[in-house]
Design a protein that fits this description.
about 270 residues; alpha/beta; Rossmann fold; 8-stranded mixed β-sheet; two-stranded antiparallel ribbon; 10 helices
């Protein structure tokens, strides 16, 4: 199952969600591939990608390199395709003209479909935009998870994201929005009010707000600033929130059994 973590607004917890979800699924025994599709490369930094390893990046994968040559082992059951600032120019570099119509030849994963089958989950982090890279990630995905902070701007952005998701469905009819994940949540402030707005927006785009709330925590910000191993975040309150969220997600995709293991027992669409 390929999972896209996306929101056009930055600072809503996309990378933290992608990283801790990939780690958490791997620790449950699933074989996981993390893919950093954000040219800012924050996922790669947090997962402590070694740039001296001679391992290819997502850019190399898009250029035609084999998947095995573009993955780096992070922990047991978890591998990473690192980000690359070169994908900032992907919209131009992979652009061709067919007749009078511009076509972006950016096929993210389908050329590697056989190799992808060895993973139970592929978790893709995306940048804060609605450009060509996101569209192609969505075309390669089965599910979308939308992290959002409980404020008006990020909730409004979900509606714009849903239009891009609908465009991706023209080539990927099976794409589903798993739900909206509320992050940086504080029950004592305006977050409680904005929660209702998130539910309204979820209804408009045909999805739900996950029951799990990811609380606000300085340990996440400190980890981003210091590059500290995110595995340590599991002991924090925020880390435990993500453990709960992963269980909720697995219960959904496994048809009510959050303990199911391996792809043969993952519920198919």
């Amino acid at each position: 199952m390929v999972i896209c973590i996306s929101n056009q607004k930055g600072g809503v917890g996309k990378t933290t969600t992608a990283v801790l979800m990939a780690i958490g699924l791997a620790e449950k025994g699933y074989r996981v591939l993390a893919v950093d599709a954000d040219p800012q490369k924050n996922m790669s930094t947090l997962l402590q990608y070694d740039p001296d390893s001679r391992t290819g990046t997502l850019y190399d994968l898009l250029k035609g390199d084999e998947l095995d040559g573009c993955t780096q082992s992070i922990t047991k059951n978890l591998e990473l395709v690192a980000g690359d600032s070169a994908i900032y120019m992907a919209d131009i570099e992979f652009l061709t003209i067919k007749g009078n119509r511009p076509i972006v030849n950016l096929d993210l994963l389908s050329a590697h479909r056989a190799e992808i089958q060895k993973y139970d989950f592929v978790v893709i982090d995306t940048g804060p935009n609605l450009g060509t890279m996101l569209l192609n990630v969505l075309r390669a995905s089965d599910r979308v998870i939308i992290p959002t902070t409980p404020d008006t701007l990020s909730v409004d952005g979900i509606q714009a994201l849903s239009e891009t998701i609908n465009a991706a469905k023209e080539r990927n009819e099976g794409l589903e929005i798993s739900g909206i994940l509320l992050t940086c949540y504080d029950r004592y402030n305006i977050s409680k009010v904005m929660e209702e707005d998130a539910k309204d927006v979820a209804g408009l785009i045909g999805t739900k707000v996950f029951n799990t709330r990811i609380r606000r925590g300085k340990d996440i910000r400190e980890s981003h600033l210091t590059g500290e191993n995110p595995m340590k975040l599991k002991r924090s309150g925020v880390g435990q929130d993500y453990v709960t969220f992963i269980d909720e997600f697995l219960e959904e995709v496994n048809g009510g059994n959050k303990q199911a293991k391996r792809s043969s027992r993952i519920k198919k669409k």
